[in-house]
Each structure stands twice: as C-alpha cells, then as structure tokens.
C-alpha cells in the first residue's frame, strides 16, 4: 500500500470580478492527476510556473479543497478535514515553503516557532519540550543560541533549516517541500538539499518535492512527475524521465537545462530548435483539441506517458 495516493485530483479556483464579486470564471489549476508516493521515497513534481504544482501540494496537506478526486493516506481517504483529524494526518504530513521569511512568524523567537507544532500535537512538560527543541536544532545543525533569536537574524539557508526543524518536530512520515531551495544561492542550495537527504535517511521520511528545476529534482528524487497546465504529462523513475523522455513537453524541459559543457552547447542549441519545431507543429499528437494533455498510459511498469493509445502502441513496437 502506498503512503499517499492521489486519484484523479482536480482543484478549480473561482475567479471573481466586478462590484458584486460574482464568480465569472474558474481556473482549472489542477485538472485530474493521479500518482503515488511510497514510504521513504522522494517524488518530484516538476513543471513551469502556473502548472499547478503548489496547488497540488497545498491540497494534499489540506490548505486547499479538492474539487474532484481522492487523496488516500495509507489506503484511507483524507480528502475531508474530519478524515484528516481522525488519522493523525495533520501531524504526520508537514509542509515547508520556498520563502521562509514569510512562512516563519517574524515576531516569535526560534524556540517558540519550533515548539509550536509540539504543543499542538503532543503533551510534553516544559522541560521535555525544551530538550526536544534543542535536539531538533542540533539535527538541523544550529546551536542552542538560536533559541532566543528571531527569523530575520538568520541567513536564508539557516531559515530554511529552521523551517525543516519545525516540520520534522512531530515525526512526520511525509514532507511536502515546495521549492525549498529556489530562493537560495547555488552553494547554499546544495547544502540544504544534502541536509534534506540526510534527515530523510535518518528519520525515514518521504518527500513530495516540488520544483521547476529539473537539475535539483534529479539530485533529490527517485520518481518524477512532469506537470503541464494542471495535468501530468509523464511519470517515471529518474532514468525513465532523464534517459527516455517520451512526451514532447518533458523533452522541452530537459532541453532547457543550461549546458555546462561548452563543447556540447552547439549540439544542445540544435536539439532545442528541433524539439521546439516538433512542439509547435505536432501539438495534436500530444494534446487534445482543447490543449489538454491526454490521460496517462503505461509504457513500462514504471513509466507513464500522456499520449493517445495509438501512439503508445507505436512506441511499444
Ligand atoms: N488562490 C488562488 N486563486 C485563484 N487562482 C489561483 C490561486 N492559487 C493559484 N491559482 C492559479 O492556479 C494556477 C496554478 O497555480 P500554482 O500556484 O499551483 O502553480 P505552480 O505550478 O506552483 O507555479 P509556480 O512555479 O509559479 O509556483 C495558476 O494559474 C494560478 O494563477
Ligand atoms: Mg508554486
């Protein structure tokens, strides 16, 4: 049984306008996606801005409401708030955000910020609580002096680690990390990512790792889902996605990764142009007349692609 299973999830936002604030339209931020995350695994969700990644993450933790579909946690539905409460879900599934300066309360000291989830979810004495907070600070590589400081007194990378300490305080089984390193310098990014990997092994956590950066996801995730306009266009192992991408949109994202090797740059430019041409000319093979990606179909036991059945058969031959 998967740790988490998302089944045909759709999230539509009402778009309001005018003096009466009437609903004039809906934004189909997520439009029918399915995937699973196994225990201890990292699942990367990748896609361009506005493709519905954050909405997916927020709906899984319960910050947004599903318009359609189901979320199962260890086989049990957690789509409704009542179900989440009964299953300890709010304790076991935590989220960390891109911008820790706005997600950490600026008026509270670090000690209190980290103690907050402990107070909500466990009954510890003051002594025990302080010990646990100190232990958490140590886990994320910060000293005890951090206890009495405020968020603005830390660097971006340190703040991200404080966010992680708060998220792991309640022994979560799943952490949803929404662009956790996008706001950081490259050198600090690597530090925080390696640190996230380390605590994953120590604490047996699964990640839903949200990023627009295919390089970061390759470093972090065994399984990857590629999102485009609220739909999943391809899901597979790291190897499936990076070595054998089948959807034109995945190929396009991969071709956009900057080439470090100077000798390879011309070849990459050429590849980019070719993919761009296919993308422009062969839309109908990859999207339905409304521009919606097709349903995912299995290509192998691990690799799924959003293509019409006829095209899948061609690929199989
Ligand atoms: N609260 C909201 N109300 C209305 N529309 C929203 C809301 N939140 C997101 N959207 C819209 O839903 C779509 C998906 O947004 P989402 O934030 O999930 O994308 P994303 O993939 O996380 O993008 P980014 O990489 O820029 O963070 C976008 O078109 C966005 O404008
Ligand atoms: Mg986002």
TrEMBL record:
Domain named ABC transporter: residues? 4-254
> Organism's domain of life?
Bacteria
Q: Does the keyword Protein transport apply?
A: yes
Q: Which UniProt keywords apply?
A: ATP-binding, Nucleotide-binding, Peptide transport, Protein transport, Transport
Q: Name one Pfam family in it.
A: oligo_HPY
SMART domains from the UniProt entry? AAA (SM00382)
GO BP annotations listed: peptide transport; protein transport; transmembrane transport
- Provide the GO MF annotations for this entry: ATP binding; ATP hydrolysis activity
Similarity section: Belongs to the ABC transporter superfamily.
Name of protein: ABC transporter ATP-binding protein
Q: State the organism named in the record.
A: Bombilactobacillus apium
- Record lineage: Bacteria, Bacillati, Bacillota, Bacilli, Lactobacillales
